[in-house]
Amino acid sequence: MALPLISRKKQYAAVVYLTLLFQACNGFYLPGSYMHTYSTGDKIYAKVNSLTSIETELPFSYYSLPYCKPHGGVKKSAENLGELLMGDQIDNSPYRFHMNLNESVYLCTTLPLSEHEVTLLKQRTRDLYQVNMILDNMPAIRYTDQNGVKIQWTGFPIGYSPANSNDYYIINHLKFRVLIHEYEGAAVEVIGTGEGGMGFISQADKNKTSGYEIVGFEVVPCSVKYDPEKMAKLNIYDNFTTVSCPQELDKSQVIRERERVSFTYEVEFVKSNIRWPSRWDAYLKMDGARVHWFSILNSLVVILFLASIVFVIFLRTVRRDLTRYDELDKESQAQMNEELSGWKLIVGDVFREPSHSKLLCVMVADGVQITGMAIVSIVFAALGFMSPASRGMLLTGMIILYLFLGIAAGYVGVRMWRTIKGHSDGWSSVSWSIACFFPGIVFVILTALNFVLWGSRSTGAIPISLYFILFSLWFCISVPLTLLGGFLATQAEPIQYPVRTNQIPREIPARKYPSWLLILGAGTLPFGTLFIELFFILSSIWLGRFYYVFGFLLIVLILLITVCAEVSVVLTYMHLCVEDWMWWWKAFYASGSVSLYVFLYSINYLVFELQSLSGPVSAILYLGYSLIIAVAIMLSTGTIGFLVSFYFVHYLFSSVKID
């Protein structure tokens, strides 16, 4: 009687606590960085991210070029694990604004450009490098008109070179347009997870929240030739006369040795009706959205229809075989076994240990880890927990999830090892192999790519300190959890086979066609579920576009899992029908072969969509990262197909009457 009383008291206390919490918090905002409000005249500093280009895919530091530096030196902003791995390097900048005050400001005049600086500026301009500025956690965007169509770009170019000229011109004057929304303090608590960490606006501070919030950050880049002698007399942040962007080349700032470049900017604050929670809408609008939705929907409907037909026919066939077999008496079954061929004749061999069984257990275990990470990450992203305002959070979350899912990988891998071997000997070796297999592949590829990035002096190179951090996370979290999962699997009941395995293996009849041909063909159907979405994902990675349709990605993931399971089961059944009892690896690669098509599609995307990608270094980086993605997809889809096939074969032969 005491326990229910205590339980009721706890429930009552929880209800009272939640009631008080909701009274204190009339509303909240999740996700994204917490809302900043500024009063008129408040100082706001812009930040700068790495210079990026779709031509090379090699990020470089903003201050690797002769730009004005802030007072007090360059200071890096706090970066999370995902930002570091993506090559982001966010630094402070001298660009300073005063809230709701329009002004034209002088920054600095450089020393005479050296030969090295001129060469570097021209090279970065030829490679179409973009300057990426950030204000209140929002990247700067610019608009251009191409054939009457308004196109949105993130960032602005370093410079440009006219079509009929050999000269290069630097962007040295920026016209900023900051959209602001007037905000009046209310009984609102704001909760967020931005780059400033968790932030709260409490009830007591509601009067302080009145002011302006930044809801847009636009830039118009210009090249203006100034008199360096006259401009050098000015001090930083001195006001000067507003200038218009010149159209004549002789009034633009040329990149030439011994030239002195003056940097200026002007800012205009424009009141907007856009509210703070909707300020990212301008960035998340995808070109050809209608085509995107209808193409995916069409693919989903067609593939679901085909998969359902195959699955229904398949179920009817298996059920008919089982019904006919069960209706016979023992003598008739023996006679049937002598007269007929098919999956019923390999009862004594179907669960024979496969070749390289340890490797199979390791790959399936790593596939469980990757699949779990992908499902949880996409579900949270689809629910809105992965805001674009939180840079690198998606990648950081995926890494953390992968580390903690090591316990599931160890459990599945070691339990399968016990099932195949019939004992637990060597489980620690299997657990260590699980912990090292996929991370080892990624480590080798990333290290090779890192040497390429180090040679190019790119900010995309992973620093040695980050290597130690990643190694520590892996060794202190993933490895112990994988070993713990393996230990728990040794304590669990092993999966019992429904039939006995014969001492002498049955000879497999010769086939008219090789098995690998069926396996390659099986991968086309899963690939059909994701190739359209794959195009948009590759575009977001390599063309710098925002990808934020995680709801559709979740639907595609569910459909991919379903189709992988169906394809693998159908192919396994086909092999069993031709008396091929070596189905283990074939079930894995039947669905895992989709990774081959993903890699080939990545090469196709490189050739036809990234034609501007220049140099072998960029191609090596692209292919290296594509290979990591393909391996991860192979392990994930192969695991899905294998586990479903294993339970199908187990169910199929447990339904047959055996003496």
UniProtKB/TrEMBL annotation:
GO cellular component: endosome membrane; Golgi membrane
Subcellular location: Endosome membrane; Golgi apparatus membrane
GO biological process: protein localization to membrane
Record-annotated membrane-spanning stretches: 12-30, 293-315, 359-386, 392-414, 434-454, 466-490, 516-542, 548-576, 588-608, 620-653
Source organism superkingdom: Eukaryota
UniProt entry keywords in alphabetical sequence: Endosome, Golgi apparatus, Membrane, Signal, Transmembrane, Transmembrane helix
Family of the protein in this entry: Belongs to the nonaspanin (TM9SF) (TC 9.A.2) family.
Official protein name in the record: Transmembrane 9 superfamily member
Classification of source organism: Eukaryota, Viridiplantae, Streptophyta, Embryophyta, Tracheophyta
